[in-house]
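Can't attach files on this board, so I'm pasting raw text. These are the components:
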Amino acid sequence: MKYFTQVSLTTYIAAILVYALWATITFAEPDKGWIGSIVYLPHGPRVLFYCFFGYRALPALFLAETTGPALVYGEQYPDYWAIANIGSLLCVVLAVEIVKWSRVTTFNYSILNKINFANYKFLILVIIISALFNSIFTNLIVSAFNSDMQITVMVVFRFFIGDIAGAAVFLTYLIIMFQLLRKRKIYKVNDN
Amino acid sequence: MSIKYIQKLASILDMLENINQDLDLVGYNETEKKIFYTIVNNIHNNKKCNITDVIQVSGFSRSTVYKAIKEFENQGLVSLIQSDEDRREVFLDLGIA
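---
Top answer:
Structure tokens for the assembled complex are below.
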């Protein structure tokens, strides 16, 4: 229970902060809000925390992905996006199972097998596969609930690229932050 | 904190470290980082920075500073701009600005 609480708190706080940052940049100009989907940062924590913390991170991820947009949009936030969020999370779960099933990590498939994601190549594989599924399934779910929404190949492609680019930016940011924190003595430079 | 939680966080750091080592994203050594920070700090405070300023503030030798600046220039982090008033003087500017 203690582990679940720690995982949930870490996941929720990190995911909501990333969403808040992404939403602040994206909705600075509401007319150009679609530009945000070219670099969809929240895909980074979604994949990272599921891969490392497993199914225990799912409730916190769902809560962050639902409360984050609800805080930004308020009552205008459509309910069906919550279903789309479940779809997005399931895409990550499915991607991890496909990586297991492909047997590139272990030589026998079992849902209980664990992948060593310290080998980042598996994480990248999950990011790409989940982005592909997410771009298709999220748009399918949204278009099923909202018939006014026009889904084109370009929109699906934009979601696909956006998820990959967002996860890449998120990971790069983490790498730089951890390196700087570890070697923070570089800040000790004499000022004039 | 539970041991399992700390182990998971440690494995995230391992993964980030592995990417960093393979891509060499933060591959500059401490001397180069200090020189770059000095350049950025000088430009921020004085709106301009020349190589002599960097040598004086950082405390490194002329050859070390020149070598680091050459590396930054190759990476596109800084650019060298010749002064209009004195053609022997070269100012540093941030390539990423």
